[in-house]
Amino acid sequence: MQQINLLLTSLPDGILLGFVYGLAAMGLTLIWGVMNVINLSHGPIIALGMFGTFYLFTRIGLNPYAGLILVAIVGLLLGILIYAVAVHRVINAPHLSSLLATFSVNMIIIGLGTAAFTTSPYNVDFAAGGFKLGSITLLGTRLIAALVAMLFTGGLYLFLFRTRPGKYIRAVANNRAAAELMGIPSTRILALSFGLGTMLAAVSGALIATFFPFSILAGGSYELKSFVIGVLGGLGNPIGALFGGLVLGMLEGIIPAFMESSWVPVIEFGLFVIILLVRPSGLFGAKQQ
Amino acid sequence: MKRSLSSIVTLLVLLGVILSSCAPAAPTEAPVAPEPTEALAGEQPASTDAPAKAEENITVGFTSSLTGAQEVSSKRQVAGFNLWMDQVNEAGGIKLSDGTAVKIAAQTYDDESAKERVQELYTRLITEDNADFLISPYSSGLAAAASIIAEQNGKIMITAGAAEDDAYKTGNTSLFQLYTPGSQYLLSTVDMLKTLEPEAKVAIVHENDKFSTSVVEGLKPYLESHGFEVVLEEGYASETTDFGRVINKIVESGATVLLGGGHYPDGSTFARQLYERQAGLKFVSLLVAPADSKFPELGDAALGISTSSQWELAATHTKEEADALGKPWFGPTGEEFAAAYEEATGEKPTYHVAGGYMTGLVLQKAIEDSDSIDPEKVKAALEAMDIFTFYGGVKFDTSPEAHGLQVGHQMVVAQWQKDDAGELVRKVIWPADVANADPLYPIPAPE
Asked: Taking a C-beta distance cutoff of 8 angstroms, is the pair B88, B44 a contact?
C-alpha cells in the first residue's frame, strides 16, 4: 500500500519532468535526423541555457519564463554560429569528424564556462507556488515547464509541417542531394536546423534551472538522458523524443517506489542497451537511411 | 549504415558515462599558485625569538578542487592553509632551537574533484616536486585515493576534510586525521534529539559516498541504541539533483526527523526541495552543506536546517578549556584566527577554513616539538601530540588498528536561525554548555 502511495506521489513528478527531458532530447534528435551529426556540445548548451535564466533573473530581474524568449533567440544564433564554425566543413566527412568537431565545441564551452562561472552550484531562487492533491505535491515550476515543453513541441511540429522552411528541413533530412536539385539552399537549412536543435537544448536548460541547481557541468547528465530518449523515441524523430522523455520521466517516477533511487540510472541505461539490441530504430522508429 | 550509427551512439553513451564520472578536463596542469592572504603581524603563530642562523625551506604538497563537485569546501580548506602559511612565513618561519628558520612553500594542483587526478598528482608532488609533507585533498573519497600514494611513498599526510574512518584502519601509518571521524559525526545530534523528542521517527537519507556512508554506519546503531525508530534508510547518487521522489519516500515513511545529506551540491539542493515540497519535518540535519557560508543563499529554505560542525566561532575553544583539561594550548585564539581570515578574504571562516588552517598549525607544532624537519622525527611528534587549540583537541590514535584516527576532537551542532533583524545566522545549539541559542524545534512550516 505504501508503495502504491509512493507511486502515486512520484509518478506525476516524473511525467512533468519527462516533458522537459523530451524537449532537451528533441534538440539532439532534430540535428541527428537532419544532418546525421551527433551533437556532443548538447550538454554544455543546456548548461548555458541554465545560466541564461540565472543571469536574466538575478541581474535583470526578468521572469524566467519571459527570459525564455531571449534564451531561445540566443540559443538559435549560437547554434547557427557553431554550425558555421565547427560543423559545416565536416558535414560530409565521416561521422568521427563531426563527433570530434562537436566534442571540441563541448570542451571549449566547458572550459570558458568554468573560467567564467567556476563549477560551483548556482541556484535560481524562483518559486511559482504549487498545490497539493491529497498526498501529491505539484510544483508550479514543473507544471509550467511541462506546459512550455508541450508548446515548443507543438510549435516545432507546426514549423516542420506547415511552414516552408520547415518543409525544406524535412526535404533536406530526407534527401539532401534531391533537395538541392529542387533549389533548396541546403547549407542555410542545415544551419537553421542546427540552430533549432541548440535552441531547444538551451530552452530546456532554462526550464530546468527553475527547479534544480546547476553548474557549467550540469548539462552532461541531461545529454546522456537525451541519448537514451533519442533511442527510445527513435533517433531522428523529434516528436518521438517527447514520447521518449515521458517514458524516461515515468521510469524515474516508478523505480524509486520499489527500490533505492540509485538504481534509476542502472535501469535507464540497461533499457537503453536493450532497445538498441532489440529495436535499434527506437520505439517510434527512426528515419530510414 | 543504420547499424553502424547505432554502434556509434552506444559507444558515445558509454564514453559519456565514463567522462561524466571523470569530471571535466582541466585547462592546464600547471601548478596553481596559492592565493595570497594578508597575515596579521600580531597574530602570527611562530614560536621562539632565537636569532636565525640559517633558513630551511620545506615544501607542503596538496591538491585542491578548483573545479568539480568538491570545489566550494575545498577552496575554503585551501584558504585556511594559505592563511597559516602566510602567517608563518611573515613571522620569519618556524624557528628551531639551533636558530634555523623553516619557511613553508606550497605546491598545489587542481584535482578537478577526481580520484584519478588525485593519484596522478600526489605521485607528481612526491616524485617530481619533492614535497616534504602532504596535506590531503578535500573529501574522504579524494583523501582515500591520495592516502594510498602517501603511504606507498612513506610521506606524512595530514588529512582535513576527510572524516571517513576506514582509511585509518587499513594499516596505514602515515596519515593523521584532524576531523572527528565520520562514524561519530551525528552522535551529538542524536544526544540533542534525545532531549527534544525521544520518540522521534528518523529517516536517514544520505549521499552514496565514502564519507556519508561512514557517518551512517556510526549513526544507525547509535540511534537504535537510544530507542529511536529508523523508519527509512536510503542512499542517493552524488550527482542527484531531483530529490522529489526521495522526499515522497520520507513523507510516506512518517518520519519526523531527517538525518543525512552528503556534501555541498547535493545538500543545498536537498534542503531547497524539502522546503518547496513542505515535507513537514520537525528537524533536519544535513552533512557539510549547512556549514558553508553560501548556504543562506537558499533563503527561507535554510531556516532550521542543522549540521554537525567541526568548529564554530561562536563556540570556539579557549585556553581556559585547555587549562581545565590539563592540555597544552597552541596557536591563536578563535577570534584572532577569524579576524585574520576575515581581513584577508572579507569572509567569515567556516569549519572547512579552520580545518585547512589546522593542518598547517599541527604540522608546525610537530616540527617545533621534534625540533626538526626530519620526517621520522616529525611523525613521532605527531604520534605523541595531545594539544588543545581554538579548533579543539588534537590527538591521534597510535594503535595499529586505527593509526592516525582523530581521538581528541569533539563536534558541535549548529542550526540556521533568524536573528532579531530577520537575517539568517548559524547558531550553536549543542552541546548545551557551549550553545548560544536554543534549538529551533520544530522547524516552522513554510508560509
From this structure: yes
Q: Give the minimum alpha-carbon distance from A143 to chain B in angstroms, rounded to a whole number.
A: 14
| Residuewise pLDDT in 10s, chain B (447 residues) | 445 555 555 555 555 544 444 444 333 344 444 444 444 434 445 554 555 468 999 999 999 999 888 999 999 999 999 999 999 999 999 999 999 999 999 999 999 999 999 999 999 999 999 999 999 999 999 999 999 999 999 999 999 989 999 889 888 999 999 999 999 999 999 999 999 999 999 999 999 998 999 999 999 999 999 999 999 999 998 888 889 889 989 998 999 999 999 999 899 999 999 998 888 899 999 999 999 988 998 889 999 999 999 999 999 999 999 999 999 999 999 999 999 999 999 999 999 999 999 999 999 999 999 999 999 999 999 999 999 999 999 999 999 999 999 999 999 999 999 999 999 999 999 999 889 999 999 999 877
CATH architecture type of domain A2-120+140-278: Orthogonal Bundle (1.10)
Is residue B97 within 8 A of residue B50, CB to CB? The reply is yes
With 0-12 CB in 10 A as exposed, 13-18 as middle and 19+ as buried, what is A115? exposed
**Per this entry, what is the length of chain A?**
289
Same domain for B361 and B288 = no
Q: Where are the domains of chain A?
A: 2-120+140-278
Cβ separation A125–B248 shorter than 8 A: no
**B269 and A121 in contact by Cβ < 8 A?**
yes
Pull the grid cell for residue B140.
574522504
What global pTM score does this model have? 0.80
Q: Is residue B8 part of a domain?
A: no
d(CA A179, CA A161): 16
Which residue type sits at B364? Q
Q: Is B25 on the interface with A (CB under 8 A)?
A: yes
Cβ distance of B13 and A125 shorter than 8 Å: no
A212: closest chain B residue by CA: B241
Q: Which of residues 261-280 of B touch A (CB under 8 A)?
A: 264-265, 268-269, 272, 276-278
Chain A residues whose CB is inside 8 A of the B239 CB are 221
Say how many domains are in chain B: 2
| CA distance readout (Å), B355 to B201, B231, B349, B358, B371 | 33, 34, 10, 5, 24
Across the interface, do A253 and B245 touch by the CB < 8 Å criterion? Answer: yes
Contacts for B200 with CB less than 8 Å, ≥ 6 apart = B193, B228, B256, B257, B282, B283
| ipTM score | 0.79
Whether residues B330 and B303 share a domain: the answer is no
* Residue B369 structural domain: 28-180+315-395
Question: Is the domain of B235 the same as that of B383?
Answer: no
A38 and B8 within 8 Å at the Cβ level: the answer is yes
Tell whether B384 is within 8 A of chain A (Cβ).
no
Query: Nearest chain B Cα to A261, which residue?
Result: B236
Whether B56 and B121 share a structural domain: yes
- The answer as to whether B191 is a domain residue is yes
Beta-strand pair B257-261/B201-207: parallel
Whether residue B104 lies inside any domain: the answer is yes
The CATH code of the domain that includes B321 is 3.40.50.2300
* CB spacing of A262 vs B27 below 8 angstroms: no
User: Measured between CA atoms, how close is A194 to chain B, in angstroms?
Assistant: 18
* Residues B371, B278 share a domain: no
Determine, yes or no, domain membership for B46.
yes
